[in-house]
Specification:
Elements lengths: L4 E3 L10 H12 L21 H5 L1 H18 L2 E14 L1 E8 L13 H14 L5 E7 L3 E8 L2 H9 L13 H12 L6 E8 L10 H10 L2 E8 L4 E8 L5 E7 L4 H11 L3 E4 L2 H14 L3 E12 L1 H20 L7
Parallel strand pairs: 3-4, 3-6, 6-7, 7-10
Antiparallel strand pairs: 1-2, 2-11, 4-5, 8-9
Helix pairs in contact: 3-10, 4-5, 4-9, 6-7, 7-8
Amino acid sequence: MMTNVTFMNPGFFWLFLVLPVLIAWQVWQRNNQTATLKISSLKGFKGKSSFLAKLKPMLFIFRLLALSLIIVAMARPRTVDISSKTKTTKGIDIVMAVDVSGSMLAKDLKPNRMEALKKVAKNFVEARPNDRIGLVVYASEAYTKTPVTSDKAVVEDALDSVKYDNVLQDGTGIGMGLSTAVNRLKDSKAKSKIIILLTDGVNNAGFIEPETAADIAKEYGIKVYTIGIGTNGMAEFPVGYAPNGSFIFQMMQVEIDEALMKSIAAKTGGKYFRATSNQKLETIYKEINKLEKTEIEELKFYDYDEKFRILAIAACALLMLELLLRKTVFRSFI
């Protein structure tokens, strides 16, 4: 009943210091409150203790309890139930454009670039509950795997299903991936529109030049963060299929067109990052998460439940009971 209680006027608790004084006064005055009769001897009187006489001190206890309840009531105890409602005031629409060419199976990130990206991207999605996120995949061509949506489960399922297959012709069409992502955001009414463009290679496919796609993104006020994924130096790349259907890997030089990625980011007001390890990739997504903040309005509702009334009622009941007993059962005739 009285859990999570706060007191509006806790200063009244100092009045409890008066109660020991009242108790001391009651003990000192107790002999004067009872009629006495002095006789030379009690011989001939049968000793018998009165049950009511033993109960009479209860009247003073009732009064002390009533005073204690009144003090607590004056301190004004109450409980509060706090409920909150959040409202996105400046939302962000984000499209992740992911390279799914065969080179994303390279093993310089563990277990490979694609799986490392999927794990980090899912954490990024979970960290932005108030934004809409979409997913575009590209190789030599591009398509929208998930349009911008506030349903994070849909986006995460789409990320889980990302893999290298023969749906798209192999190659790296950075301009195709970027332009498809721009097409997803150009009609967005969001306060901020963001594309996270990730690749591990050099633009070598598609009929839209990356710089042209960047110009279109700038025209629509879309900021592009670019990420080049891959270690410096050599890495194990898939170069063919073994007779059992598994990939054959070979050490090859990592090539990323960093100049192009930096140019796209600078033109659109974004930033370029290089992910050379799993930890670096995770750090990059965390940094983007910090750079792009969604403004949230939080409304809190306080429901106060005052508890002093029941204490005051209980105190009045004890005082009335004490008065009733004093005027009836314990009434003095002397």
